[in-house]
Every structure is written in structure tokens, then in C-alpha cells.
Amino acid sequence: MKLPVLNDEKTESAGGCSSSGCGSSASAMDHLPDTIRDKVANHPCFSEQAHHYFARMHVAVAPACNIQCNYCNRKYDCSNESRPGVVSEVLSPAQAVKKVKAVAAAIPQMSVLGIAGPGDPLANPQRTFETFRRLSEEAPDIKLCVSTNGLNLPACAEEISKHNIDHVTITINCVDPEIGARIYPWIFWENRRIRGVEAARILIEQQQKGLEMLIERGVLVKVNSVMIPGINDEHLKEVSRIVKEKGAFLHNVMPIIAEAEHGTYFGLTGQREPTAAELEALQDACAGDMNMMRHCRQCRADAVGLLGEDRGEEFTLDKIDAMEVDYEAAMVQRAEVQQQLLAQLNSQRNKLQNQVQEQPIRILPPSRPVKMAVATKGGGIINQHFGHATEFLVYEASQKGVRFIGHRQVDKPYCEGGSSCGDDGETVLQSIVRQLEDCEVLLCSKVGYEPWSALEEAGIQPDGEHAMEPIEEAVQAVYQQMLARGLAEKPADQQQSLSQLQTA
Ligand SMILES: C[S@@+](CC[C@H](N)C(=O)[O-])C[C@H]1O[C@@H](n2cnc3c(N)ncnc32)[C@H](O)[C@@H]1O
Ligand code: SF4
Ligand code: SF4
């Protein structure tokens, strides 16, 4: 079963945008068949809109891996690091089920349970499927997800569809074995360790076969690709084209995390990470062909909560043991809360669509897109103090509408770091301002005097006037004000070259 083409560029213009320039990435959902829309409506990873409202959790039941990636080091006992592969405790299936039920009862907006490591779930099939089997019996209201490198996927595809797991992520970093040999030093296949180009060839073959088998079985597939500058960055456009052609639903191009202290091969050899601008450019290039995920937070294998927050510390095994959970009662409450959240999400989407239709058609001077950073704690509204934000969402407003383009993680919130300097002599505030340097506006609930001045000096206009308003509406409103004041006009030289092009 092939899915319809859907990408953010196309859906924005399909929103009926005219020169009045309104619309929203919210409209992306409207072009999906009902069956697929129902599957993704409350999935925080498969729907950008849903990630403001619904939470996810991972259970770390899969410690072993059947391949080695040059960017991965699975380190345990580490609670202060947030990156894939890191967990505090590996759980047995029974412990995992207990934890999921406790979290689901405490966080009713938790809609999805994923198994994503810390190794490869399908290299630990007994532990993984035992967890899924028990959960589908004991907590049938939770969506099940699995994330794999794909080596063992063809052997498990049938079992995946039997367990009602209708969302799967496959990490596909290349379709060319020569490139693969630079990413994977070895795989463990048919009881042998295989190295080099031959290893990459087998891995790629199994990933592509697994992808096809899942699509045939009607499973929604997301493809993760790690962007490694100088190794597979250009090549990922080809990967995107191929997986889209085969019917993958979503492509998630993520930046490599390659810090020397993580002890990975790439960390130690000085492999550089891409800049935010490079990542966005590659995501845009892939989007010509494919529906892109831009809100992935590269979570730990035991993450709990809304994307961007981690409440894992509240649910350690000793704390769960002390909790009394009545799951029958929790299911009733969860259903009510999730219905309300879906209603809120739909009403926000409809409101934005109505705005598109009601906007009078006006002829405006050619305008340029404007990036705006937003501080939010979730719920799709501007409700975070600048000083408390651990991340900022970045939106782009243009005459085509508003689209989400990414997020910027900060090392420390401003209120925790103040004006203290890191090893590189940069203050926390300077580092946050640098991360947001391509944005022209910063929307938050409140902002103090010192950061206000620093943002303004860097050409970023702080804005606390839209506190508690829905994000996309506020971004749209600020853009309209900028247009009205002539602050978002296309530079004259670009206007000229555009008209020259049109004449030519
Ligand atoms: C920890 S893995 C677990 C699932 C499975 N083993 C896999 O690799 O797909 C989850 C995701 O994190 C990615 N990942 C692991 N280490 C990373 C790193 N240092 N930088 C960026 N992505 C990384 C993997 O490529 C994968 O897409
Ligand atoms: S497949 Fe996943 S768990 Fe295994 S080494 Fe690669 S990133 Fe790490
Ligand atoms: S790592 Fe990305 S895809 Fe996985 S749960 Fe986190 S946000 Fe979702």
C-alpha cells in the first residue's frame, strides 16, 4: 500500500494561500486518508501538530546490538545526558510493563510506547516482543512503536504486524555500500562478524527488504537518517527519494551528535556536527520529494514525557514500586483527556484554515520569509519564560503560511546560567543568542531586561505580547504586522532579479 505524497511545501500552498499569505503546517494532516490520519493524529513523532499535546515514552528493554555504528556508544547509568542510546537502567519485560502502566496512569496524554534500545530492539526479539505482547493485552489503549537498524527486520516483519505495532522506524543512513563502509565498521550476521563494504551491502539489502515488507503489511514507516557532514550528507537526498518511492511515510534527517567525550569513533576522529542551517537546507532539499520530520529531539532510550522534556527521574523502578495503579480507571481518564486534546488540536487547525479562507485577497509587495523563535512548555501555546526555556522552536512565516522548521536546544536555561562563562569564554546568554541568530523575533511569555537588550542588539525582537496565544496564530499575526510596517519586504535587488526572470 503506497501512501499519498505529502510534504510541507506542497501542503502549505494547497491550503489555498493567496497573496494575502496565510496558511499553516496544520493543513498537512488534512490531505491524509482518514485511516492514516487516525493513526497519526495523537502520535507525537509522526505528527508535528500532535507533539505539542501528546507525550511518548521509551522502555529500555533491548541492551544488545547486532551492528556497530561509528557514532554510537551505548553508555548506561547516565541520567544527565540526553541522546540516543543512553539509559539509566535496563528493564526486564515485566518491569517495563509495570513502568508503562504507572506512567500512563500519571500522564494521561502519554499515547505512545516505543522500544528504541539502548541497543537494537530486533537484536533482542524475545525481550522486545514479550514486552509488546503483554502491553497489547494489559494496556490496549497505548500505541506501540519500534525503532531498528533494520538488519533483522525481514525476519521480524510478520511478527511486528501480528503484534499490532503500526508505527516502525528504520535507520537508513545510505543506499551505497561504499558510503556505508565509512559509517558501519561491522555487522553480526548469520553467526559471523562481517566487516567493510560487504557488511554495509548486507545491511542495506536487509533494510530495503524490511521496508518493502512493512509497507506491504500496511505498517506506517518512518525512516531516520543521521546526517554526517562529508560522508552521507549529499547522498541522503538519494536515500530520501528511494524510501519515499517505496512508500515510507516520513523521513527524519537528524544531525550526528559526535562529541569526543562520548567515546565514539566519530567523536574521537573529530567528525564535525552539521550547523542548524546545514541541517535545515538538507531537510528542505529532501522535502521536495518527501514528508519530513523536523521536530525529533533525539531522545534517550528511556525518555518519558512530551518531546523536549524528560520526566524519567519521576519513574525510576523504586518509585514505581511505591505507586498503586488502577489501570482500568486510568484508561477511562486517559480516553477522556486524549479526546479533549484531539478536540483542541482539531479546533486550532480549523481556526487556522478558516483564517486562510476569510483573508481578503490583497496585493502586497513581494515579501521575504521571516524566522521566529518560540518558547513553549507544550499545548501548542506561547507559555514559557525566556529564562526557563531549555529549547526554542523555530517557525518560518512567509506569504505561503507558517511552517515549523526546527528546534534549537540550549546547553543551560538563561535563569540557571545567568551571565556565567563556559570553557570557551561565552556566557550562557551569548550562547543562546548565537543559537537564535538567524531569527528576527523571539516570542515568549516573559523576558527580563538583560536578555531583552542582548536579543535586540543581535537583531532579534523580543515579544511577550502574545503570551498564552496559539503559536502559529501568533507567528502569523506578528508577520502580518511586519508586512504592514514594511519590515518583511524582499530586498530590492531580489525583486528586480525576480521580475527579470519573469520577463525572460
Ligand atoms: C539509539 S538508536 C536505537 C534504535 C536502533 N538501534 C537504531 O539504530 O535504529 C535510535 C536512533 O538514534 C540514532 N543515533 C544513535 N547515536 C546517535 C548519534 N551519536 N548521533 C545521532 N543519532 C544517533 C540512531 O541512528 C537511531 O536512529
Ligand atoms: S544500530 Fe542503533 S544501537 Fe546499534 S550501534 Fe547503531 S545506533 Fe547504536
Ligand atoms: S527520538 Fe525522535 S522519533 Fe524517537 S521518540 Fe524522540 S522525537 Fe520521537
Tell me what the structure shows.
With 504 residues, the chain is α/β, with parallel strands linked by helices. It folds into 2 domains: 5-10 and 366-503, Dinitrogenase iron-molybdenum cofactor biosynthesis domain (Nucleotidyltransferase, domain 5), CATH 3.30.420; 32-321, TIM Barrel, CATH 3.20.20.70. The chain is built from 17 helices and 15 strands. Helix 3 (93-106) packs across helix 4 (125-138). One iron/sulfur cluster binds at residues 45, 56, 114, 296-299, 307. Residues 320-358 form a coiled coil. This is FeMo cofactor biosynthesis protein NifB. Residues 1-23 are annotated as: Disordered.
List keywords for this structure.
17 helices, TIM Barrel, alpha/beta, 504 residues, single chain, Nucleotidyltransferase, domain 5, 15% strand, binds iron/sulfur cluster, globular, disordered N terminus, 5-stranded mixed sheet, 7-stranded mixed sheet, 2 domains, binds S-adenosylmethionine
